[in-house]
User: Which sequence fits this backbone?
């Protein structure tokens, strides 16, 4: 599609293995971006999420470089893996690396843990945003308790200059209210709508509760198809300016995308 | 600020939505269970809801069918008001016989165009010896059977739909994401042509194109699972799908229209 302008602020590449999906690699992602007018995707790789940064991050950065500005990368930090911090530190400044991804639920680590301190410090020192998985307490998935939005307050208070994106709008339960409180309390806290946050009137209710300047479009590819969230933004009952912010400008600002 | 691209996309999507003439297989009345952020939909809300999403009809269900009891849910649905608006009743095994409004050979008002079962919540099996009588009647009367993927045993469904090859079973992708069950769902759809899938959470990357290519567009049924979910999620997947316009119309409404026409025939 011509006139591509959208930034998908939450994508992954590689199959996560735990389910079947017909499209999951970098070529599939770019095909969908071309189809839907998505200019840029912010991406972290599943290999790094599940196996630690290093090999996966290097491969992702090569993909970023070869994508000619279509894909930008996030370095995954797993606090249990000793090699992650040096692997990330070594690649600071590489073209295409625009932030850090943390996932306390997958990594079974309390988000207030001192093990996360080095990555927050690194982010602050290098003007890098952090995208974290966030969700609500869930009886179906007890590990989501590691990622409820209020638990990130510990570090955002200590590193207020770091731009923090609470992924998935805090989930579909009590995490939503906590996400709203965090965004309204801390000027550098944002949220994205990636994943199956398929609540009716999600966009309208978010814009009523938090500034539109803090909401980012995201798909969570390949877990979800970007098409699942696009039409609901286009046809939402908010201003056209608000749609422009959500689809493009907010992510541009958070991740310093040219 | 130039908003022309956004305005163009809005206009295009509105136009396609109107052309699709969607029928929604999954509109729910009553207090939702497990969706703390969702508001209850009431019968008087249906007109506005249909208008907002350009619906040309819908199948209405009631949460009480699961949470209070099958007969209570069916009674709460009542007779739907409005054209092209029908209901899905909750069913139980034919034996032991239970009182109340339960669907079967002696009770199916014309406006009841589908039946749903909750084998896990209502503690019965999807085996022939348990629900064979119900399935025989559904097959004979051409009433489609709806079931949430979280309520079924995949092995049992595989056997059952083989034993009743004219029974149409619509696997619903709620109330938890279907994603983790795709290896089972897709294999079942490949093996059993009388299994269809409802689209409210059928939202993984490339799912629509894959399913249309592998199983045919006739096997996909639009449903929203509103008011828990946003109808524009599955409609958005259809609007932007890389399939033909005719295939989009099948998914959005024509497949369900065909199923509804055949009920009782």
Assistant:
């Amino acid at each position: 599609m011509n006139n591509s302008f959208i930034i998908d602020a939450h994508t992954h590449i590689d199959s996560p293995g735990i389910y079947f999906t017909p499209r999951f690699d970098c070529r599939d992602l770019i095909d969908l971006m071309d189809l839907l007018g998505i200019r840029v995707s912010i991406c972290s790789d599943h290999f790094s999420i599940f196996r630690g940064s290093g090999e996966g991050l290097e491969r992702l950065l090569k993909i970023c470089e070869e994508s000619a500005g279509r894909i930008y990368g996030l370095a995954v930090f797993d606090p249990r893996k000793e090699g992650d911090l040096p692997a990330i530190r070594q690649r600071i400044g590489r073209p295409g690396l625009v932030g850090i991804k943390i996932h306390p639920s997958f990594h079974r680590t309390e988000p207030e843990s001192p093990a996360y301190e080095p990555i927050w410090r690194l982010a602050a020192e290098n003007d890098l945003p952090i995208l974290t998985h966030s969700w609500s307490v869930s009886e179906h998935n007890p590990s989501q308790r590691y990622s409820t939005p209020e638990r990130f307050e510990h570090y955002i208070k200590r590193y207020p200059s770091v731009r923090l994106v609470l992924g998935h709008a805090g989930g579909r339960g009590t995490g939503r209210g906590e996400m709203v409180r965090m965004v309204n309390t801390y000027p550098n806290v944002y949220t994205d709508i990636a994943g199956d946050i398929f609540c009716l009137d999600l966009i309208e209710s978010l814009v009523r509760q938090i500034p539109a300047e803090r909401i980012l479009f995201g798909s969570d590819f390949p877990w979800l198809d970007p098409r699942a969230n696009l039409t609901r933004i286009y046809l939402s009952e908010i201003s056209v300016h608000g749609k422009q912010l959500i689809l493009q400008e907010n992510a541009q600002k958070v991740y310093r995308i040219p | 600020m130039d908003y022309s691209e956004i305005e163009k996309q809005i206009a295009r999507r509105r136009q396609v939505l109107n052309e699709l003439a969607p029928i929604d297989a999954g509109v729910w009345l009553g207090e939702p269970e497990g969706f703390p952020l969702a508001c209850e939909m009431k019968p008087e809300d249906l007109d506005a809801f249909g208008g907002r999403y350009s619906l040309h009809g819908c199948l209405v269900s009631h949460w009480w069918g699961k949470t209070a009891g099958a007969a209570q849910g069916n009674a709460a649905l009542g007779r739907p008001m409005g054209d092209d608006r029908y209901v899905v009743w909750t069913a139980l095994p034919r034996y032991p016989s239970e009182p109340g409004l339960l669907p079967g050979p002696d009770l199916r008002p014309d406006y009841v165009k589908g039946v749903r079962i909750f084998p896990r919540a209502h503690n019965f099996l999807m085996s022939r010896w348990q629900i064979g009588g119900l399935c025989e009647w559904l097959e004979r009367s051409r009433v489609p059977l709806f079931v949430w993927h979280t309520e079924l045993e995949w092995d049992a469904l595989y056997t059952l739909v083989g034993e009743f090859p004219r029974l149409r079973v619509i696997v619903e992708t709620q109330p938890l994401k279907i994603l983790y069950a795709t290896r089972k769902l897709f294999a079942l759809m490949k093996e059993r042509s009388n299994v269809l899938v409802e689209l409210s959470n059928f939202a993984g990357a490339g799912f629509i194109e894959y399913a249309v290519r592998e199983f045919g567009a006739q096997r996909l049924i639009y449903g929203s699972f509103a008011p828990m979910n946003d109808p524009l999620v599955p409609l958005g997947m259809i609007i932007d799908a890389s399939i033909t316009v005719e295939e989009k119309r099948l998914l959005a409404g024509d497949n369900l229209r065909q199923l509804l026409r055949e009920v009782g025939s």
Remarks:
- The first helix of chain A runs from residue 26 to 36.
